[in-house]
Amino acid sequence: MSRQASKQNRHTARDICGLKSRKQAFVCLTAYTATMAAIADRHADVLLVGDSLGMVVYGFDSTLPVTLDMMILHGQAVTRCSRRALVVVDMPFASYQESPEQAFRTAARIMAETGCGAVKLEGGAEMAQTIAFLVKRGIPVMGHIGLQPQSVHTTGGYRVMGRSEPEQEKIMADADAISKAGAFSVVLECMDEQLAVAITKRIEVPTIGIGASESCDGQVVVTDDILGLTPGPYPKFIKTYSELGRAIDNTLSRFTADLRSRKYPGMENTYSAKKNIAG
Ligand code: KIV
User: Fold this and answer.
1) Count of beta carbons in the 10 Å neighbourhood of residue 77
2) What does the DSSP 8-state code read for residue 85?
3) Which pLDDT belongs to residue 111?
């Protein structure tokens, strides 16, 4: 892509931050591959190269084993094959939690090697200093609070957050701290609706919900989930719009039946020389 094309068309973190006042929810879709990036770019305001790729693409049972090198390779594919959406790349587990300096080195590699427009990291008040450190050094940061998949071992697994008053107060304080630290938007994952409403009203930057009700300024989904590509059962907040997993299964079944019965390849799929090589 020429520099001119990328300059003209690509949304920036600043543009996304400005969508807070829009009535219509904005759209963030995960993309990990060239194929999905090219298609999703036609529909999304933001493409998230989420560390959920650890489960969706690599079959891990959590996001913890995902490495920085994996995120960079997938981030490169997504920026290369999209033109319009802001590309945000997740910082993987253990690549930023140690110190602001470690986070800067990781984020700088991601930005320089993928060409993405922002990074995302998980964490509340305890990450505010790191977020401010990155933003001051030119790195736009999307925050992520509520259910934080990289911390499930300390927070009690995959569950709805903010059901008790102390937890609601903590998550509200997290939202305050990271928005004040300079995050340009904040993902709210799997939380009580009333809490999502209150945070969205209170903070100045857009909230992006996943399992956090329609009240958020934008919504993010794992694209493979809504396409019916990932194996269920799905949590309540996911609505599947297609059965692509089943469609692939049917297609491969018809294809392999044709192969086994020698219906494919047919003459129309075969190169035949006018003259036989053997004469
Ligand atoms: O990794 C991911 O896909 C995410 C979204 C679920 C927000 O963090």
Assistant:
1) 20
2) S
3) 98
DSSP string computed for 25-84: PEEEEE--SHHHHHHHTTT-SEEEE-TTHHHHTT--SSSTT--HHHHHHHHHHHHHT-SS
Task: Locate the domains of the chain by residue range.
Answer: 3-243
What is the token pair recorded at 59? Answer: 């079959």
The per-residue pLDDT of the chain, averaged, comes to: 94
Query: Which residues have C-beta atoms less than 6 Å from ligand 1?
Result: 30, 48, 50-52, 90, 144, 187, 189, 210, 220, 222
Structural contact between residues 210 and 221, judged by C-beta atoms closer than 8 angstroms: yes
Q: Is 113 a catalytic residue?
A: no
Pick the CATH number of 3-243 from 3.20.20.60, 3.40.50.1820, 2.40.50.100, 3.40.50.2300: 3.20.20.60
Q: Nearest C-alpha to atom 2 of ligand 1 is from which residue?
A: 50
Kindly name the residue from 98, 169, 189, 268 that is annotated as catalytic. Answer: 189
Q: Which of 52, 49, 78, 47 is nearest to 65 (CA)?
A: 52
Q: How far is the CA of 148 from the centre of ligand 1 (A)?
A: 9
**pLDDT > 50? residue 176:** yes
Q: Whose CA is nearest to atom 3 of ligand 1?
A: 50
Q: Are 32 and 72 in contact (CB under 8 A)?
A: no
Structure confidence by residue, pLDDT tens digits, 91-125: 999 999 999 999 999 999 999 999 999 999 999 99
Statement: the pTM of the whole predicted model exceeds 0.90: yes
Which of 49, 89, 148, 210 should be mutated for ligand 1, with most atoms under 8 A from CB?
A: 210
